[in-house]
Amino acid sequence: MTSSKRLMLIVNGEEMELTARPADTLLYVLRVRLGLTGSKPGCLNGDCGACTILADDIPIKSCLMLAVEGEGKRIQTIEGLKNAPIQKAFVEHFAFQCGYCTSGFIMNAHALARTDLHADEETITEWLQSNICRCTGYKEIQQAIHSVLRQGAKGTDPLAQPKEGR
């Protein structure tokens, strides 16, 4: 019999106490236990990137991370972005079709904007290699990312967003 462990997770700026089994992935806990369904279960082996979240501002595939490994880290999901410029850019550039992979791309692009506002085409392409889209193609996604990076280069905060919880 597997015993559960008490965890304190910081998700989208909010402390959340819960119990999880040792083998529960962070993706499972976010979706099933916390009701944050924006991160998607795609391949469940780390290839597609649909489950990408940020842990201490680093893109992580939550299907590969155990929930217990999230303790003490700042976890950010797509729900925590709440109308961030990168989300608006994806809409403006029609950077998605079915939308299943979109949250993973947005989280990855948000992390890129935090890391390198002057990322060139090669860097953007490198960052996008950890996400797969079977519908749209990558041109519109790259255009959305470029538009947000240009905002940052002009002095507009490309990461500006409300500071709300969940």
TrEMBL record:
<keyword id="KW-0408">Iron</keyword>
<dbReference type="Pfam" id="PF01799">
    <property type="entry name" value="Fer2_2"/>
</dbReference>
<keyword id="KW-0001">2Fe-2S</keyword>
<feature type="domain" description="2Fe-2S ferredoxin-type">
    <location>
        <begin position="5"/>
        <end position="81"/>
    </location>
</feature>
<dbReference type="InterPro" id="IPR012675">
    <property type="entry name" value="Beta-grasp_dom_sf"/>
</dbReference>
<dbReference type="GO" id="GO:0051537">
    <property type="term" value="F:2 iron, 2 sulfur cluster binding"/>
</dbReference>
<dbReference type="Pfam" id="PF00111">
    <property type="entry name" value="Fer2"/>
</dbReference>
<protein>
    <submittedName>
        <fullName>(2Fe-2S)-binding protein</fullName>
    </submittedName>
</protein>
<dbReference type="GO" id="GO:0016491">
    <property type="term" value="F:oxidoreductase activity"/>
</dbReference>
<dbReference type="InterPro" id="IPR006058">
    <property type="entry name" value="2Fe2S_fd_BS"/>
</dbReference>
<keyword id="KW-0479">Metal-binding</keyword>
<dbReference type="InterPro" id="IPR051452">
    <property type="entry name" value="Diverse_Oxidoreductases"/>
</dbReference>
<dbReference type="InterPro" id="IPR036884">
    <property type="entry name" value="2Fe-2S-bd_dom_sf"/>
</dbReference>
<keyword id="KW-0560">Oxidoreductase</keyword>
<dbReference type="InterPro" id="IPR036010">
    <property type="entry name" value="2Fe-2S_ferredoxin-like_sf"/>
</dbReference>
<dbReference type="InterPro" id="IPR002888">
    <property type="entry name" value="2Fe-2S-bd"/>
</dbReference>
<dbReference type="GO" id="GO:0046872">
    <property type="term" value="F:metal ion binding"/>
</dbReference>
<dbReference type="InterPro" id="IPR001041">
    <property type="entry name" value="2Fe-2S_ferredoxin-type"/>
</dbReference>
<keyword id="KW-0411">Iron-sulfur</keyword>
